[in-house]
Design goal:
Layout lengths: L3 E7 L2 H6 L3 E6 L4 H11 L4 H5 L10 E5 L2 E3 L11 E6 L5
Parallel strand pairs: 1-5
Antiparallel strand pairs: 1-2, 3-4, 3-5
């Protein structure tokens, strides 16, 4: 399997955990789950505990967009050159 290079822009808690707003990331897999795994490596294993639910899905407090399209599942694919946006949902009152 060939690697995929994507541009990741992180906001909110994503950015705090990753320590940077923008990344050029290379991953061996082609799914968002593979990308999360790679970002977790970059973040010294701090990312998964924050952004994933107990069943391994994306916690509803977080959103991922690929090329402007919202992705509801981590099985969504990414391709070389994609732009991935990572958002924390703002809540409260």
């Amino acid at each position: 399997m060939s690697s995929v290079r994507v541009t990741v822009t992180a906001f909110g808690l994503w950015q705090m955990i990753l320590g940077n707003k923008r990344w050029r990331v290379e991953t061996e897999g082609h799914t968002l789950r593979d990308l999360i795994n790679r970002l977790n490596e970059i973040a010294s294993s701090k990312l998964e505990n924050e952004v994933l639910a107990s069943d391994g899905s994306l916690d509803p407090k977080f959103r991922i967009f690929v090329n402007g399209n919202a992705c509801d599942t981590l099985s969504a694919t990414v391709a070389d050159g994609d732009d991935v946006l990572l958002f924390s949902v703002i809540d409260g009152g």
